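not sure who needs this but someone in the group chat was asking about Amino acid/amide ABC transporter substrate-binding protein (HAAT family) from Bacillus oleivorans so here u go. i didnt clean anything up, its just raw.
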Amino acid sequence: MKSLFQLSKLALLFVFILFIACACASNTTQESPTPKDQGGNTTPEEEEEKEPIKIGVLASMTGALESYGQQTTRGFELGIDYATDGTGEVAGRKIEIIIEDTETKPEVAVQKATKLLEEDGVDFLVGSSSSGDTLAVIGLAEEYEKIMIVEPAVADSITGSEFNPYIFRTARNSSQDAVAGAAAIAGEGVKIATLAPDYSFGWDGVAAFKEAAEALGAEIVLEEYADPAATDFTANIQKIVDADPDYLFVVWAGANSPWQQIADMKLQEKGIKISTGAPDIPALSLMEPLVGMEGFSVYYHELPDNEINNWLVEEHKKRFDGNVPDLFTPGGMSAAIAIVEALEKAEGDTDANKLIEIMEGMSFETPKGTMTFRPEDHQALQTLYAIRLEKKEGVPYPVPVLIRELGPEETAPPIRN
């Protein structure tokens, strides 16, 4: 009897131990994530791969450069659609675009960029409309180790004296503009005056133009700078008249352009020819007195002849009430294409140091043809256009008509970093 009783106790103890073991196994199963091939759940690493790629776009959505900000952001959104075949994702990760208005104020640009980096946790920065805003922000890209695509700011110093390895620029810089502008008018013994806004965009533009023009034998007889917010250029233009140049080369950006006063003060009748970069469409509408002028263009929708530009023009018309893309729309698109292409090569990895290795020397197709990030300074080498302003039936503004393309090698600027 005693032996039987002991056996019963042992049996009960065995059942109890078995019960505890099963319970522990059950808890372990609930607490540990199950791989996809066993239970359909995802591991933390797999969840991380599905996190969206966040891109913060800094642009002047209000103020004097509002139209530039709108052009860039529209182009960027179209570029993401084009580069991802409408899926809005790359390497299995959705792309999230966060647009912030810098108000064309450097201190606001810094606040908005900091917010994008710290609160939104963006993987890339893009921008901005103003060189002043951009110069205030590019240090943050290095501090937070995030790639920043500069578009459309042009100051040479961005990829020159203020360069850091996290900066890449799809926008052309002042020296590229200068090479194109000088090629149009400079020559041995030609006297040229310049007019530009009194800030980094204007200073860099004139310095680069002066270097290119003097290399071709021209003489710069006056460098005139005006308040960037000016609406009355009478005093500035009178100084130019007094200098008696053969040409006035104008570097300008913004809605408060000097074209009407240049016409009112009859510079061309005084023997001073005008040359400049063809601006955006609203500013072209003020250049009626300059029909026949020869200069250069960064972009006009009829100048490039390639499939991507054809897509951009047609899609832009569909989405925006029949309106064509303007001066900085293709730049925004190019920035988006560059980011998507780099991420595809990186298989969705947003580590900036890995992306730098990929992007240095990377070529990619854009509405302006092939662009290449020059390894030394990350400036995109690109096509510009020698043009003449002409009247065109049915178009209410002078139209930039192609004289010839200025290829990426021809417009390659000096390395200044």
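also The domain at 175-297+386-406 is CATH 3.40.50.2300 (Rossmann fold). if thats useful
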